[in-house]
Amino acid sequence: MARTSEPKGPDWAPERTLRVLRQQLGELRELRQHKKQEVSKEYDVWSQATWAVFIHGFGQQSHNLTDFNFAHYGEKKKNEEEEFQRVIGRQETAILSSIKELEMGLPEAELKGAYEAGDEFAFYKDLKGILSSASNNVFIVDNYLNTDFFELYVEPIGLPVSVRILTDEVRGNLMIVATKYARRGQFEMRSSKDVHDRHIFVDGRGWMVGQSIKDGAKKKPTYMVEIGAALVPTVRTIYEDLWTRSTVVVK
Predict the structure, then answer these.
(1) Residues 6+ apart with CB under 8 A from 227
(2) In the prediction, which pLDDT does 1 show?
(3) Neighbour order of strands in the sheet with 114-115
(4) Which residues pair with 209 in a beta bridge?
(5) CA distances from 6 to 34, 55, 61, 152, 222 (A)
(6) Which helix (H) or strand (E) holds 175?
(7) Do 57 and 20 contact (CB within 8 A), yes or no?
């Protein structure tokens, strides 16, 4: 008797699936701004890639993959462009519901809060976890940044999350790296001599950081403490005001 192969199960970590789905969502929203005939090939590539993401992230028998595939079914529009928008709209809904499912299933990062000198990996892991959890926007305030900062902390933030960085001045090759990163879209970096503290704002939450991010817990002890929910709007307003008065460096 011939053996039947087992359906493929998920083989990606939820964090990876969440990050890639956010990227695919951003690409889909960009495709939606064009007519089907303009992006037909790009859309076909996107569809196949996203289908693979659902298999890796949820498995072949998941309701998530079924929902994504179901976008093509139902009463079809007579107009080709309207049908294209209908399918994209249903695919977007399938992706958004899967993102929400992943977000609810992932535990919130447990931060140490205080870091001894030499404990830089724990600092890196905690801060990277905070930034990669963003679903809408990231606002980073730090007066000493370098190129490693983008590779270690900013690169994992996927679209459609918008990223803003406020620093005091651009040093070394930071401008080159920031300009390359800006091609992703949804990014802006500004400078102001009034920047002195370190703050991280992710969606509706905020953190204070003792040292500059690039040197966090490398040679000296530091801290990363979450700001109370009631205080976040007040603190963020201070830096939003500073942002409006700052100089655009990369956009």
Answers:
(1) 205, 206, 207, 208, 235
(2) 47
(3) 114-115, 222-226, 205-209, 198-202, 137-141, 162-167, 187-191, 247-250
(4) 198, 224
(5) 40, 13, 10, 38, 50
(6) helix 174-181
(7) yes
* Calpha distance 57→8 (Å, rounded): 11
Identify the three-state secondary structure at position 191.
strand
Whether residue 145 contacts residue 174, with contact meaning beta carbons closer than 8 Å, is answered with yes
pLDDT at 59: 94
pLDDT of residue 108: 58
Rounded Cα gap, residues 181 and 188, in angstroms? 10
CATH of the domain at 191: 3.30.870.10
Please check whether residues 210 and 244 belong to one and the same domain. Answer: yes
In the chain, the amino acid numbered 35 is: K
pTM given for the model: 0.59
Q: Does residue 5 belong to any structural domain of this protein?
A: no
Compute CA 208 distance to the chain's CA centroid, rounded to the nearest angstrom: 20
- Stretches where the chain sits below pLDDT 70 are 1-5, 106-112
pLDDT score of 140 = 93
Contacts (Cβ under 8 Å, ≥6 apart) of 166 = 139, 140, 141, 142, 189, 190, 191, 192, 195, 239, 242, 243, 246
Residues 190 and 67 in one domain: no
List the one residue out of 158, 216, 211, 212 whose CA is nearest residue 187: 158
In a domain, 3, yes or no: no
The reported pLDDT for the residue numbered 188 is 93
Alpha-carbon Rg of the chain, whole angstroms?
Answer: 21
